[in-house]
């Protein structure tokens, strides 16, 4: 068998070049080398795509970052039954505690209504689709209130955080209703939905006020 310049070899030699090893060499030669950081990013994206396609409990092993994100989201929306304050500021933590908070999220105790009002209030319970709500109702110093203002606290708050605003509206001649929303203060539950289910609490409070003959229209 004669092989001339520029000729393609025939026979067994040519067949060997068509095998899997030759194809792998051609692919490696055509693909430029990648930097380690780029390769790591591509591996991470590939794991994320596989996680999105597969789903289910087994996918947690493919993406530990998703487990950390889940823990932070859980801590953010679920309050603990333990008393005390939430996790200290980062500058007050040791290195090991910082790592623990980074992996498991911030400790979030259930907010409590610890402050007592300086004016007379009526303790009431409002029926909500999310469970019983604890609230304070107070009339102004005047005999006939101009109306009723329902007050709702923010994230990790309670009705005790609304006393300053309640005093202002009472001074203007309005009755006030201070509500512990679901999962906060003395109301039932230990979680928050950041406004999604809390809208039912607002509707329940307004319905309660409208049903009370002694209360002015909200």
UniProtKB/TrEMBL annotation:
It comes from the Eukaryota. Residues 1-37 are annotated as: Disordered. Residues 144-213 form the Serine aminopeptidase S33 domain. Residues 28-37 have a biased composition (Low complexity). Residues 13-27 have a biased composition (Basic residues). InterPro entries: AB_hydrolase_fold, DNA-binding_regulatory, Hydrolase_4. PANTHER family: ALPHA/BETA-HYDROLASE (PTHR43358), ALPHA_BETA HYDROLASE FOLD-1 DOMAIN-CONTAINING PROTEIN (PTHR43358:SF4). This is Serine aminopeptidase S33 domain-containing protein.
């Amino acid at each position: 068998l004669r092989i001339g310049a520029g000729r393609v070899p025939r026979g067994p030699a040519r067949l060997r070049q068509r095998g899997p090893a030759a194809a792998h060499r051609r692919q490696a030669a055509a693909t430029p080398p990648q930097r380690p950081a780029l390769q790591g990013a591509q591996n991470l994206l590939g794991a994320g795509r596989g996680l999105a396609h597969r789903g289910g409990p087994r996918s947690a092993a493919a993406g530990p970052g998703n487990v950390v994100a889940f823990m932070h989201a859980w801590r953010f929306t679920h309050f603990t039954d333990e008393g005390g304050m939430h996790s200290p500021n980062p500058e007050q933590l040791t290195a090991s505690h910082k790592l623990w908070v980074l992996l498991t999220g911030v400790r979030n105790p259930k907010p409590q209504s610890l402050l007592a009002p300086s004016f007379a209030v009526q303790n009431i319970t409002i029926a909500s689709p999310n469970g019983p709500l604890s609230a304070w109702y107070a009339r102004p110093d005047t005999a006939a209130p101009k109306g009723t203002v329902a007050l709702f606290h923010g994230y990790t708050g309670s009705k005790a955080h609304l006393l300053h605003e309640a005093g202002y509206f009472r001074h203007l001649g309005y009755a006030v209703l201070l509500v512990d929303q679901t999962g906060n203060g003395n109301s039932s539950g230990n979680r928050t939905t950041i406004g999604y289910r809390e809208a039912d609490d607002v509707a329940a409070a307004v319905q309660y006020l409208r049903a009370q003959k002694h209360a002015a229209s909200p």
